């Protein structure tokens, strides 16, 4: 299974958010930390804010902040929020046109695999994947 690029960036944004702890951070800091296009970071941050994973404050003293303690935010929840399609093969997607779907024996193992993948991610929180601020060249939180 492969996650889309926006999910990858979302997880990295959340790692950064957990690493800076109580400090606010900006989109530009994320761009600098990861070298990801600003437009991508803006799209991801908007999705994370809509999903309740980040809070945003406008204005001079504004910025982004993790919305809950990192140990309360599940990696699986972020992935489910960011991924738009968990249809691994055609028969698991809308518009399925596979001619053997009704008798196919592959659907069940692939569904089990997808569920196991998500169940594994559910075992981890953002706190589990956070790294030290020094890894980003920041002073300790």
Automatic annotation (TrEMBL):
What Pfam families does the record tag this protein with?
Rrf2 (PF02082)
Q: Which PROSITE patterns match?
A: HTH_RRF2_2
Its cellular-component GO annotations read: cytosol
Q: Kindly indicate whether the keyword DNA-binding belongs to this entry.
A: yes
Top-rank taxon, per record = Bacteria
**Which InterPro entries does the UniProt record give?**
Tscrpt_reg_Rrf2, WH-like_DNA-bd_sf, WH_DNA-bd_sf
Q: Which molecular function GO terms apply here?
A: DNA binding; DNA-binding transcription factor activity
| Keyword field | DNA-binding
Q: What is this protein called?
A: BadM/Rrf2 family transcriptional regulator
Naturally occurring in which organism (per UniProt): Thioclava atlantica
Q: What lineage, starting at the top, does this entry show?
A: Bacteria, Pseudomonadati, Pseudomonadota, Alphaproteobacteria, Rhodobacterales
